[in-house]
Write a structure and sequence with these properties.
By secondary structure, the chain is an alpha/beta fold. The protein has helices spanning 3-10, 16-36, 51-56, 63-70, 96-108, 122-127, 142-145, 187-199, 211-219, 230-239, 265-281, 283-292, 298-301, and strands spanning 72-78, 86-87, 93-94, 111-117, 133-138, 148-155, 158-163, 179-183, 204-208, 225-229, 246-253, 256-261. The strands form three sheets. The protein has a five-stranded mixed sheet with strand order 4-1-5-12-6. A five-stranded mixed sheet has the order 9-8-10-7-11, with helices on both faces.
Length: 303
Amino acid sequence: MTTADLLKAMFPRGWPRMAALFCLSLFLTVSIAACSNPEASPPSVNTRVTAADIADIVPDESTLATIQAAGKVKIAVPADFAPFGFVNTAMQPIGYDIDIANAVAERLGVEAEVIPVVGNYRIPFLQTGRVDLIISSLGKNDERALIINFSEPYAPFFSGIYGGPELDIEAIENLEGLSLGVAQGALEDLEISKLVEESEVNVDIQRFANNSLTASSLISGQVDVIATGNVVAAKLIRDNPDRQIESKFILKNSPCYVGVRKGDQPLLEEVNAIIADLKQSGRLDEISMAWFGEPLPEELAAS
């Protein structure tokens, strides 16, 4: 009896995704045990689960067909991560990802049911069928790629240099002689320190205890520019429109992707087509301007 046959016997057809989760959990548990004790005897049964095993227990019907039949798509969105997703005074979810979720549903021709989800629960909600898609500031890495599929990137998430319009800064060399604020120990601190050392540019780096103090240092004129994440910069731009703060260049780019279940290729292709259309029509730029105060980065817009 193959692994897939065993799983089919253990789980009813109505619960294929729970079976897939069981597969993955079992595989990871055995793998961790083997790594922690390399001299241990191998298990008496073959517990290795392959991608083919999991694919074999995914139902024949596609999620896209199910969505179209129901007239509704269930989408996981951020619960408390402004400006990607948060609640307004009327306790309604708003934000960049909510606008994207509504745009995706509109182009699918169905109603959007947005389900606010805390970060750690996003992938389990997708795998167990509680949602059809994840649009929740989801980053891509090798571990996640083992268990879900990713769309083309749809949202900017990056660290950059920010300052006023009077400064012409396009690269690290243009920071020569300027003062730069950064949150001590943050990703931006590590990136800018490395770039300054490699380029041998003379920059007065001033480190602050947190992002809030770093942002305040730019507004108060304590520093010429700051290195921070685009989420922090978006709030700074919204709160200080008279300062005309703008992005100068990107330090590190980590865009966001829509998460789709393994085996849902028709839905993945449809989502990718929608993202391409949103980029081409300029709608994605409009949403980015509304929530981040700047258009999509050039490399993301062209992807």
